[in-house]
Write a structure and sequence with these properties.
With 162 residues, this protein is an all-alpha fold. It is built from 5 helices and no strands. The longest helix is centred in the C-terminal third of the chain and has 43 residues, at 99-141.
């Protein structure tokens, strides 16, 4: 309710909608926020702990906005690859209309440009997969523990090598 109401409340900044929708969205957003604060810290024993836990839960909904922005960035990367490919196709098409040297140049531009576009897409997929693993997932799901790493070699008793 808090996020949906917030979106409805901010929507008039982007488009023309009736003010009643903005007012109803504000009420829905406030009811959702009050509900989060009231129930977010229910596991704490003290009243102050419940209030602080509820406020922290309200702060926690900002993670949904971060997830939305993260997926929007991935969508923008996909769109940029499509637009780069379309631009390369247009350039090669213009070169094809210029005779035999244009056809040769168009083939070179097409193959080189599309190879570069595929390279950029693969690099983006690699970088964002690594970012998701190390930044997003490790912070949420990884728990430390286990045994410390020991080198697989024997200790030198009588000599020290440098």
């Amino acid at each position: 309710m808090a996020l949906t109401g917030g979106i409805g409340y901010l929507l008039p900044m982007l488009m023309e909608i009736p003010t009643i929708i903005k007012n109803v969205s504000l009420v829905i957003m406030l009811i959702g926020m009050i509900g989060i604060v009231a129930t977010g810290g229910r596991t704490s024993e003290s009243i102050a702990g419940k209030a602080v836990g509820g406020l922290y839960s309200l702060y926690g909904i900002s993670g949904y906005v971060g997830d939305f922005v993260s997926y929007s960035r991935l969508m923008a990367l996909g769109l940029s690859g499509g637009f780069i490919g379309g631009a390369i196709n247009m350039i090669a098409g213009m070169l094809f209309e210029s005779g035999i040297f244009g056809i040769l140049g168009g083939v070179i531009v097409f193959i080189g440009g599309q190879f570069f576009n595929i390279f950029l897409s693969a690099l983006g997929a690699y970088v964002h997969a690594i970012r998701l693993i190390f930044v997003e997932f490790f912070g949420k799901f990884y728990e430390g523990g286990g045994k410390p790493f020991n080198l697989f070699r024997s200790e030198a008793k009588y000599i020290n090598l440098k």
